[in-house]
Specification:
The strands form five sheets. This protein has a five-stranded mixed sheet, with helices on both faces. The protein has one domain: Spore Coat Polysaccharide Biosynthesis Protein SpsA, Chain A. It is an alpha/beta fold. Strand 13 and strand 14 form a beta hairpin. The C terminus is likely disordered. It is globular. The chain starts with 19 loop residues before the first strand and ends with a strand. 42% of the residues are buried.
Length: 293
Amino acid sequence: MRVGNNPLKRAYLPAPYSNVIACVISHFPHAVGYHEKRMECMKTSLLTLRKTLPEGAQILVWDNGSNDDWKVWLYDDFAPDFLHLSPNVGKNNARVAIANMLPPETIIAMADDDILYYPGWFEAEYDIFTTYPNVGVVTGHPIRSHFRWGCENTIAWAREHGNLEIGRFIPEEYEKEFAAGIGRDWSVHVMSTAGESDYRATYKGVQAYCHGHHMQFLTQAGVIAPFFLRSDLAMTPDQPFDISIDNAGLLRLCTTTRYIRHIGNVMDDELRQAADQILGGKKWVSVQNARYS
């Protein structure tokens, strides 16, 4: 029997970004060697992602063959909207599966599992994605060395259709953070980029750098699906992926403010403090377990 009607019948859900899914591919096989301290990095990434996503957006985690400690934390503690536990099929094959199982109009924010997110990253990337025409990807970390590949079409488009500026605009702070995140000596990074320039476009009042990045990007499932190719390798070089988007005539763009950071495989005190601020001043309880109170 039923008495009356459910009050939610025919009610609309207040979800302005219900077609947005942040997709993260995780991999934590063991806590030895390279992976010894990575769980802390991965938890920080997912916690800051959830904190900074707009209302209505969802999180999908595809886990590639991690150990039980990580899978238990994902399922019991983090509880993403969608969780796919898979054997290790490789990052590229996971991307292929994700892009093809989502409706083509879905806005996806694809990322590795070691990204730190600052408030406003989604809004800034989405603003660029919806303002510029024919966009392939938008990322959130300006990096000078990444103008070296897969940017020719974007720079040419900006020169013809937007206000293109060429100079040295990226703050040194962003460059230092990037060098630290990939384990590159700062002096080596300075020398290797000494003669290089930044390319900055302005279109309809919105500024963007003329490069993208494969570690984190916002796009649309139907746009990006053709560029993810299956591979027999667990990890494949990502530069051909970047270049193929540019070769297809799609724009690869980046926010002019640094909104995301590459953590790497170990946290330091500066990164922990940044995470604490993002998460509302919560105290770091355990370095071993990377749990917040």
